[in-house]
Specification:
The protein has about 150 residues and is of the alpha+beta class. It has one domain: 2-Layer Sandwich (Alpha-D-Glucose-1,6-Bisphosphate, Chain A, domain 4). Helix content is about 15%, strand content about 50%. Strands 1-2-9-8-7-6-5-4-3 form a 9-stranded antiparallel β-sheet, covered by helices on one side. A hairpin with a 7-residue loop joins strand 7 and strand 8. The termini are close together.
Length: about 150
């Protein structure tokens, strides 16, 4: 497994309040799942200078909590949520909320499918309230998935 099978793509559905993204990675599903559900997140869930995740902790089990913090556009942020579904190495679903936001939590779902030469990740990030979701959110997922590919395929 030498290189990415397909580039990351994401789209924001402004009417539905959702982001859909996918990428194919030349790494097995169990390895990809570990990168999605561990402190390795700080190595790929980033867009340098725009959204830098610096710390992550999590109790990866149904009902367990996770928390991430960093700097976004020069301001510190803290995100947190609860794991709703944990099915290694196929599926991971959790809530997502920025601390201090009046917006309700959104839900993030990763589906991992074994494909020839690696894994396809399909992401659905839903539950946004307008104007919370924008095309910039989709670009953020593309950037993060590109970093995940780089991490897992080096």
């Amino acid at each position: 497994m030498k290189s990415s099978l397909s580039a990351a793509r994401a789209v924001a559905d402004l009417n539905e309040g959702a982001i859909y993204a996918s990428v194919e990675i030349a790494a097995p599903p169990d390895r990809v799942f570990r990168a999605l559900a561990s402190e390795e997140i700080v190595n790929w869930w980033v867009n340098p200078g725009i959204f830098d995740t610096r710390d992550w902790t999590g109790d990866v089990r149904v009902g367990g909590r996770w928390r991430a913090s960093g700097v976004a556009r020069g301001e510190e942020y803290v995100l947190e949520g609860e794991f709703l579904e944990v099915e290694p190495p196929r599926r991971l679903v959790h809530t997502w909320q920025r601390i201090g936001s009046a917006m309700p939590p959104s839900t993030l779902e990763y589906r991992l499918d074994a494909i020839e030469g690696g894994t396809r990740i399909t992401l659905k990030h839903c539950g946004f309230v307008a104007p919370q979701v924008t095309g910039n959110n989709a670009v953020g997922w593309e950037t993060s998935f590109a970093a995940l590919v780089a991490l897992l395929e080096r």
